[in-house]
Amino acid sequence: MVDLRRMATLITLLALVALGGCREGPDATSDVEAEIVVDEPAGPATERSVMVLCYHAMSPGATAFYDVPTEDFAEQLALLDERGYESVLPSEIADYLEGRSDLPERAVCFTFDDNHASILTESKPLMDRYGYTGVAFLITDSVGARGSLTWDQVRELQQAGWEIGSHSHSHERLTRLSPGEIEADLRKSKAAVEEQIEGECVSLAYPYGLYDRSIVEFTGEAGYRVAFTIDRGPADWTDDPLLLPRQMVVNGNSIDTFGRWLDQEKLHFAEIDPPIGQGVDLATPAVTARLADDGVAVNALEVSVDGRPVAYEADEDARELTFSPELNEGANNLRVNYYGTPRREVSWVIIHEPN
Ligand SMILES: [Zn+2]
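That is the input. Now the predicted structure with zinc ion docked in place:
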């Protein structure tokens, strides 16, 4: 297995040491090195992955796309329990990624977006049977609105061991807001949650799963320790804490499909260009990605953009694939799948901003 975080840390460290050496001579080198080692967070000590699931409303016999039938959720919980999954919360994922603690070998994180009152009436009672807890990501502007949890109910969830996160204040597509508006929204929703609950609001779910480099930076500066997208595949030890993927569960996902998600691992790239979160002005940019997983042939991958298959060139020696997806203006979802054993998947958002 490759340890990408360590590799990146080592490269940064060597570069800084080299820089220090050139500038100030050999004696200064060890000082620079010592300083960097102290400043660098330890990172995870183990190679864990966690299946983060994203739900919205639930009701018996639900028919709407984002509403999961309560009976389907019951089946999903039974399968997770049968396979020995333990639930973890965003703060535990943050602790793990910061190197402060470990995660169980089979970890699942239940997340619920958009304040639906059905968290309390449908989802939580079923989860209670297995001792599972989750996180409610609140649109703070609409807590208490029709069909939404009230702040009293939010506190009830927290007292039952759930975590309360932010899903922004306005639920706007953050990629369409100005830097000032993004910053204000992220700080406002965190403060609104903290005014109503005990302790800190450490986690964020990006509205519509949309992000770019500046949104991720504002998220960190606002004090969130972890943030979730709706990119696909499991989260794992290699992830940026502010870009954690979540598997969205919707109406009609069969229990077989759900089981396959649990068997999947992340597909790892050592390098992606343009980097994740960087906007592009070209409609058909050249994307290159260097594969890090041993045992996966570059030409065995399947690439798609918003569900449309994309042809690519594979360079097995360099372990690189190159492709030019046709992008629409705004957010596009790039996805790479490997259908060998184990199945592997990764996806990310690329924002096309024509000049
Ligand atoms: Zn939402």
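The longest strand covers residues 330-338.
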